[in-house]
Amino acid sequence: MKRWSGWCLGLTAALLCGAAQAEQVGSVDTAFQWIGPDHKIVVEAYDDPKVGGVTCYVSRAKTGGIKGAVGLAEDKAEASIACRQVGPVTFTQPLPQREEVFNERLSVLFKKLRIVRMVDKSRNALVYLTYSDKLVDGSPMNAITAVAVDRGTVIPVK
Fold first, then answer.
1. Cα dihedral 121, 127, 133, 135 sign
2. Does residue 152 register a pLDDT over 90?
3. Minimal CA–CA distance to 106: which of 129, 140, 139?
4. The pTM is what?
5. 34-52 burial, b for 16+ CB within 10 Å, e for fewer?
6. Which of 95, 20, 82 minimizes the C-alpha distance to 51?
7. How many CB atoms lie within 10 A of CB 56?
8. Contact, 20 vs 58, CB < 8 A?
9. How far apart are CA 154 and CA 157, in angstroms?
10. Residues 60, 95: Cα–Cα separation, whole Å
C-alpha cells in the first residue's frame, strides 16, 4: 500500500510540474456526452517566455466523458498553431537555434503536445512548430507558423 501511494504521489507531481502554462481563450463542444464533460476543441494562448510580444494560439481536441473528467483520456494528436506579434518584440536572452518552448501532456503517461521555436536568421523570423509525441511512436501530424521580426531588430542567437 505504501509503495502504491508513493507512486501515485510521484505521478501527480510529475503531471503538475510538466504542464505548460497556457491561458484558455475559449472552446467549442464537438460531441455530447451523457456522463462527464462533452468532447471539445479548446483554444489556448501561450506567451513565448524568451520573446516578449509573441503569443502562440493552439487549438486542439480535448476528450470528455468519464475518462476526460478524471484525467485518464488520451487526447487526439492533431493540433493547429498560429503565433502572432501582440506587442513590441523583445528578447530576454540570446535564443538557441532550436528550442522546445512549451509542452503539455495529452495522456496520463505517454503522449505530449510540444511547441518548438526555430530561428530563421536569413529571413529574420521565428518559426514555431507544434507536434505530438508518444513514448514509443510519435505522430507525423504537425502544424507550423512563423513570426517575421522587424528588420531593425536583430534576433540574438546563441
1. positive
2. no
3. 139
4. 0.73
5. eeebbbbbbbbebbbebbe
6. 95
7. 23
8. no
9. 9
10. 27
